Amino acid sequence: DAGVTQSPTHLIKTRGQQVTLRCSPISGHKSVSWYQQVLGQGPQFIFQYYEKEERGRGNFPDRFSARQFPNYSSELNVNALLLGDSALYLCASTPWGAQETQYFGPGTRLLVL
Amino acid sequence: QQQVKQSPQSLIVQKGGISIINCAYENTAFDYFPWYQQFPGKGPALLIAIRPDVSEKKEGRFTISFNKSAKQFSLHIMDSQPGDSATYFCAASIMGDDMRFGAGTRLTVKP
Prior knowledge:
The complex is a heterodimer of chains A (113) and B (111).
Chain A (H helix, E strand, L loop, with lengths): L4 E3 L2 E4 L5 E6 L6 E7 L6 E7 L2 E5 L6 E5 L5 E5 L8 E8 L8 E2 L3 E5 L1
Parallel strand pairs in A: 2-11
Antiparallel strand pairs in A: 1-3, 3-8, 4-5, 4-9, 5-6, 7-8, 9-10, 9-11
Chain B lengths: L3 E4 L2 E5 L4 E7 L7 E6 L6 E6 L5 E4 L2 E6 L4 E6 L8 E9 L2 E5 L3 E6 L1
Parallel strand pairs in B: 2-11
Antiparallel strand pairs in B: 1-3, 3-8, 4-5, 4-9, 6-7, 7-8, 9-10, 9-11
């Protein structure tokens, strides 16, 4: 079985631009979470979606938004990029009935210049 | 946002030795405490996890010790191997929601 997939793997943007990151969960997983991992730090929770509904939101500005599609894939959008948004963006999916067990994808590395 | 404090930042252990990483948390509502292993260029992978109703959980060479009264938990890696060299993160959550991660420990196991 394929694991969590994310695209693109790397991305370079300039300040003020907008970016969309994509995530496909493991087949059968209905919950997707997004995390930001700045170099040298632990992941920080951004959003969690379950059955296309936002279930939780971390302490991130409104420039960050996300959505989940009927096939349970998800997109993370970041508007008006800042240099500080440079990070590894991780997506994790969770199986039904085991909300704690999160399976992470390889991440998308975003560099904002 | 960090509510989980992890130490040490880095750790060097000889092959065959014991690696010990510690974490402390603040929120007594946390009910799930996982440890993740991350290799360069990869996402974190779940290693082992514990709930606060048990004081210890062992899976192979990996053991979590949990002290509810002290709000601390630790990861012990027995017989550490060079292949264990990675960054380790502790985390805590309430029923899987809003997982809070520690800052990470970079473990190097010397042959």
